Amino acid sequence: MTSVFSILNNTVKELAVSRFEKPTYVQELALPKVLEGKNVLVIAETGSGKTESVMLALFSKLLEEEHKPIALLYLTPMRALNRDLMDRLLWWCNKLDIDISVRHGDTTQYERKMQVEHPPKILISTPEQINAMLAGKRLRKILENIKYIVVDEIHEIVNSKRGTQMTLALERLKQYCGSPQIIALSATVGSPEIAAKFVFHDNEYEIVKAISSKDIDLRVESPFPSKEDRKMAEKIFIGSSVVSRLRRIYDLISEHRSALTFTNTREAAEILSSRLRMLDKNFPHEIHHSSLSKSVRVKAEKDFKAEKLKALIATSSLELGIDIGSIDLVLQYMSPRQVTKITQRVGRSGHRIGRTSKGIIITSEGDDIFESSVIGRKALEGELERIRIHQKSFDVLTHQIIGLLIENYKMKPREIFEIVKRAYPFKDLREDEFLTLLSFLSSQLRLTYFDDEVKRSRKAFEYYFSNLSVIPDQRSYRVIDTTTNMVVGTLDEEFVASRGDVGSSFIVRGRPWKILSVDGQKVYVEHVEDIESAIPAWEGELIPVPFEVAQDVGKLRLEIAEMIKKGLKNRQMEEAIKERYPVSSQTASKMIQLIKGQVKKYILPGPDKIVFERFQDYVVMHCLFGTMVNETLSRFISSILSAEHGELIMSKCDPYRIIFKGCRVDEIKRILSDYKPEDVQIILEKSLSRSSLFKFKFLHIAKRFGAISKDASFININLERIIDVYWNSPIFKETLNELFTEKLDLEKTKEIIKIIQDKKIKIVEGKELSPLGKLGFRYELQDVVKPDRPEKEIFKMFRKRIMNSKVRLLCINCGKYSIANYVKNIENKPRCRKCQSRLIAILKPHRTESQEIVKKWLSGKELNETEERKLSDIKKAADLCIVYGKKAAITLAGRGIGPQTATRILSRMYRNEDEYFKQILKAEKEFIKNKKYWT
């Protein structure tokens, strides 16, 4: 039987035959289309050979016809993929005598110069680099030769502003190279037509959907703890159910040659790794996520590929097709939250043609089990999420307009508009919107001059090159426990912006903390006991759970409830669930037990039933609408209630419920019944513009417009004033646009409110907090870390820190004795070692200048105003030492405590020593809260 390789150039065909036993399914389908010169979107799983399905045909074309360099531009969304692809293609290019090179942000100036003077036939690059290359006159001449463009991993950027920017950059590129053949490569996507339109728009194209017979073996597990697990739990102070999951992960990795374990957040990856080391300190594994340095990530990749490591624990940083060798098993710790994610991640295993992709989701408890089970079923049945793209992004458009003017200096508005409209995300851009943006760039930002023509200003070059990438720079903030003065974790800038108000609570490392102060790059916190009132660990990096998944979770709950109602035995119910969902018996059993507890005396929420429950000062609204709809509803209702109450009504949500604090059920029901669906956008636009989330987004978008310096941070500029200046401008509108695309779902929320008002969704009230309601007050990772430290232990650490602090002892009688000492080593009644006086001032250890001030005073010399003020404090500190002795040193060792505060603390009567130390701690917290207001 003739293979598809026979249609290739003879040299390429011989290499292909020697390299592969036979063509893969995707190669059979895609090779002829590419060879015919068609624009093609190739959809296939990771490891199916889709890169070669395109490149073998393009190699043939490069050999068969005369091509000037650069003939082929290959775009990948990550530098790591550039490296990996270069290694893969270099083998072919060396054999075929085709020049190939790579260009990205790390490429040296010498390499860039050589690429201009001696351009390669094939250039591998990133989408952002098109913008940089188009700005160079000599490079633009070379880019005219491009005949083929390959866009790899299109699914990774189609729903981001990186992708939007790329579509415009490609239209600019086509101004020089005409209409090159474009081939896009994608993993399985839920909206193939949208992905294709995104790249090709009005040009003719074909979709090659090459989902092969490569099997997927996927199951969901939630093991019960064994006796050994309970013993281990006591030993390492974490829950036995958590140990059972850790042990299962450990066993599964040990049973396989190589395993990739995915978590949803960097924090989860770090915690999981540290807990696995508790089970086995020599366990050969490493972590891989975006916060780690490039060298650390590359070493982990190489060690894993060389089988020096049994496992990598990763976030989305390893979802893409970076070659890390053969993977036997993919583990997902806790729900992947989206079907697309688990499909892509599991596709990393069985990375050879014809092999089965094997994946196991190790799920925790409650919602996570149901969600994982639904996602597992959907993955096996190919029910993927639809793509949402960024439409008419004004910040991206601004950068590309300036790019066109850098190429041409001046252009007619109509010329620019026609180029822009060819890009799919801008197909609906109106001319009046475009002209308003041009006026704004000229009158407000001074990037252009605009009358009959648009011309660039001097600022244009600096703006353009500092905004080549739309990926925002994220600062990290260290979280400092005021009790111990130790760093307990880090927070992203987005968290500090969105949730970082003084007094708000959150969870880091499984413990609840309250913010006392944000100072520079530090967030000072105190431990709080009330884990229920704490906002869960920052979910900004968490993937939103889709509406469809949340609805199907509701259907699964109802299926189980129906079986319970019919009186089926547990074993029968387990088997029935396993027939429809890829779950273990233990997983099914846990779901049954939870629903049994719910239906016994509480109402079961469903896809078409909202249930309200009350708990203390909280109202729990069970609504199975997914992350983005619930976030939209939560903000909409909170905004109205806050306005009515005259104070902020707090709310937090997850995909299955919204929790409000400080309001009544009837108030929420009234809003759902009385407000029109179209009111949602109007109210959110007003309320969002004053929210921390809006300010954070506004900051990054204003940077992309060049309105704010790239170095500006959220906390060191007056954002409210800047927002007022740009109110209702393109910057303001784009901020709302981005929020409504990435964080909220307006259209679906409007639809839900209409359905509620049409009585197609029931609203019922339950009296107490049900088992499903309690899940809303639970943090997914809290049981993976050690239990909350009791107050006594925290207090003990505080006392230890005070006693181990250093203070300076300075004699103000002779001025000759000045020494820094630990508080614990100070005598009960300190004396000067030189003159035996008890006039000893207790000062901060760094106050070395105080001795010179005392000497100057003792010698009768005149002191300046600052020295007089410092001497007054020194005398007060010495007076305290005479009266209170060592106790004065203990008190003054507290952070921010001076003689005045110390006098107040020391003059009080205390029942015991703990009460005294608590006053020192309280004074420290007051100092941290208020020091930003001091001058």
Write the layout of secondary structure elements.
Blueprint: H1 10-19, H2 25-35, E1 40-43, H3 50-64, E2 72-75, H4 79-96, E3 100-103, H5 109-117, E4 122-125, H6 127-134, H7 137-143, E5 148-151, H8 154-157, H9 161-177, E6 181-186, H10 192-200, E7 206-209, E8 216-221, H11 227-236, H12 240-255, E9 259-262, H13 266-279, E10 285-288, H14 294-305, E11 311-314, E12 329-333, H15 339-346, E13 357-362, H16 367-380, H17 394-408, E14 410-411, H18 413-421, H19 431-443, E15 448-450, E16 454-456, H20 459-466, E17 476-481, E18 486-492, H21 493-499, E19 505-508, E20 511-519, E21 522-527, H22 547-565, H23 570-580, H24 585-601, E22 609-615, E23 618-622, H25 626-645, E24 650-654, E25 657-661, H26 665-674, H27 679-688, H28 692-705, H29 719-725, H30 730-742, H31 746-757, E26 762-765, H32 771-774, H33 791-803, E27 806-811, E28 818-822, E29 840-843, H34 849-858, H35 865-884, H36 886-892, H37 899-906, H38 913-930
Parallel strand pairs: 1-6, 1-7, 2-4, 2-5, 3-4, 5-6, 8-13, 9-11, 9-12, 10-11, 12-13, 17-21, 22-26
Antiparallel strand pairs: 14-16, 15-16, 17-18, 19-20, 20-21, 22-23, 23-25, 24-25, 27-28, 27-29
Number of helices: 38
Tell me the CATH superfamily of the largest domain.
Answer: P-loop containing nucleotide triphosphate hydrolases
Beta content comes to 5-15%
Lateral arrangement of strands in the main beta sheet: 3-4-2-5-6-1-7
CATH fold naming of the largest domain: Rossmann fold
**Arithmetic mean of pLDDT:** 87
Output the CATH class name of the largest domain.
Answer: Alpha Beta
Shape: globular
Helix content: 40-55%
**How many strands, what sense, and barrel or not for the largest sheet?**
7 strands, parallel
